[in-house]
Amino acid sequence: MNLALWIAAGLLAAVSLTGGITKTLVPKEKLAALKGGEWTGHASAGFVRSIGILELLAAAGLVLPAVLHVAPFLVPVTAVCWVLLMLGAAVIHYRLGQFTLIAVNMCYVALAVFIAWGRFVVEPFAA
């Protein structure tokens, strides 16, 4: 189970890192032109960058606390925060009629719930 939780956290961290870098560094106008990025056309540049920074923090929070053995309880806390972020994303995609992206968001939610459950209940990190 420990290995499965590490793999799930690594996958979710990679997704989060990719999205965070994109939202932080790519101009809003270019994001709005991409498939799935239409929502950025309705948001301010600061909001898009803020979401990108949250995703970068999530990437770090899903892996680094456990790797560095510094506050490893932050891994499942970060997973819960990721669930909230993805539920918000699903609402935005629903409003835009992007149902395929909602399915992707729900896959990320399931992965994050697995991590949170696994690290809170089944296989928490030793204190």
> How many beta-strand runs?
0
- How many strands, what sense, and barrel or not for the largest sheet? none
How many separate domains?
A: 1
Indicate the overall shape.
elongated
Q: Please indicate the percent range of residues in DSSP E strands (runs of 2 or more).
A: under 5%
Q: Order of SSEs, N→C?
A: HHHHH
Low-confidence stretches: none
Helix content: over 70%
Radius of gyration: 15 Å
Mean pLDDT: 94
**Overall SS class:** mainly alpha
Give me the oligomer status. single chain
Straight-line distance between termini: 18 Å
Number of helical regions: 5
Subcellular location: Membrane
Pfam families: DoxX_2
Protein name: DoxX-like family protein
Transmembrane segments: 6-26, 47-67, 73-92, 99-120
Précis, in short:
The chain contains 5 helices and no strands. With 127 residues, it is mostly helical.
Can you walk through the features of this model?
The protein is mostly helical and 127 residues long. The longest helix is centred in the N-terminal third of the chain and has 24 residues, at 2-25. It starts with a helix and ends in a 5-residue tail after the last helix. It has one domain (2-122). The protein has five helices and no strands. The chain has helices at residues 2-25, 28-33, 45-68, 74-95, 99-122. Helix 1 (2-25) packs antiparallel against helix 3. The chain is elongated.
Feature tags:
membrane; elongated; mainly alpha; DoxX-like family protein; transmembrane; transmembrane helix; DoxX; 127 residues
